[in-house]
Amino acid sequence: MTESPPLQGIRVVELGQYIAAPAAGQILADLGADVIKLEPPGGDAARRLGWAQDDCGPMFSAYNRDKRSVMLDVRQPEGRAQARRLALSADVVLANSRPGALEKLGLGAEQLIAESPRLVYGRVSAFGQTGPASIRAGFDIAAQAESGMMSLNGEADRDPVRVGFTVVDILAAQSLANGVLAALVRRGVTGRGTLVDLSLIDVAVSALANAWTEYRQNGRLPLRRGNGQPTVAPAADIINTRDGMVVLSAYMDEHFHRLCRTIGRPELAQDQRFANNAARVKHRAELMQVLKEALSDFDSDALVNMLAEGGIVAGTIRDMSQVRAGHAGVSADLFIDVQTPGRAPLSLPGFPVNLSGIQRRPGRLAALGEHTEQVLAELEK
């Protein structure tokens, strides 16, 4: 039996560009909300970021399916008035502008909530709403740098390295969506909306909770060291195989004993160099040399399957061309067809959460301003 999506009937007005607010809007759209994306005459800047073929570049296509596009020029009085009416008609407003920018247009959180007390307003800034840093422009990379994240990423003898995708933006979008959902639940009880406010820098710092705990407890500054974890072994260590690489972790003594039995080297568990975690950390280089000698003749997938049967955590290191639906645990229906104006559909990952009775469905990207007349007409009813 197919059920209605949980946010059916909820209207979301999105005032965001690039990733953080649009990706949160994408989550709410996947949950069934009617997400209306308010765009300036040139469109969301993500439409053509690093892309010149049409108005649906990679960043835009990733985070904007199944939204309705309304194009308004909020620099003009009529456009501002229409945008304000649209925002006040919503259950949720999402925004990721610099502090004060939307307030100048009459679209700030306090302004709209004062007129519509049931409104849930979710906003993302780079460095918060107050204080000297709040006026700074800030993208994901600035938050990775300032939070300490980059200081932990990369090889010990080389420069810090950013995470290979916009991880802070994505974490911020997920946090924003979670906050909005919590606020909607509370509104169902109290009848009142609220402001959901977060910053990229807070999200990035919070994501390092485990590193912060280690730092506070042992007083030693965590340092980047590439692969492998500094306090346990083997953990997140790389093994070269006949056709690629595998990463494995077996640092609990019980797991290490399993690993030794699985690879046919039970005597390693009794070797004083590897008899407990502290010894394995001290002799990590020797341990890795022994493991590489024992495992390098395997094919990656065969090795991972063997280790999995032995109860060992391991994974084949794949590039994106090697990731397939229905393979290695990826859901068979995770990838969906996303219709793009004037182009063949894109096969993209859909919403990763499985909800009972609700199926993933194909998506569609809206042309710039495609739904302007339709949505404005709805305001007149």
Features:
381 residues; 6-stranded parallel β-sheet; 3-stranded antiparallel β-sheet; alpha/beta; formyl-coa transferase, domain 3; 2 domains; 34% helix; Rossmann fold
Q: What does this entry show, briefly?
A:
With 381 residues, the protein is α/β, with parallel strands linked by helices.
Written account of the structure:
This protein has helices spanning 20-30, 58-63, 77-88, 109-115, 140-146, 167-190, 200-207, 209-218, 253-262, 277-282, 284-295, 300-309, 372-379; strands at residues 11-14, 34-39, 67-71, 92-95, 120-125, 194-199, 237-240, 245-249, 313-316, 335-340, 343-349, 363-364. It is elongated. Helix 4 links the parallel strand 4 and strand 5 (120-125). It is an alpha/beta fold. Helices cover 34% and strands 15% of the residues. The two termini are 34 Å apart. 33% of the residues are buried. The strands form 3 sheets. The chain has a 6-stranded parallel beta sheet with strand order 3-2-1-4-5-6, sandwiched between helices. The protein has a 3-stranded antiparallel beta sheet with strand order 7-8-9, covered by helices on one side. The model has no long low-confidence stretch (mean pLDDT 95). The chain has 2 domains: 11-207 and 331-379, Crotonobetainyl-coa:carnitine coa-transferase, domain 1 (Rossmann fold); 245-316, formyl-coa transferase, domain 3.
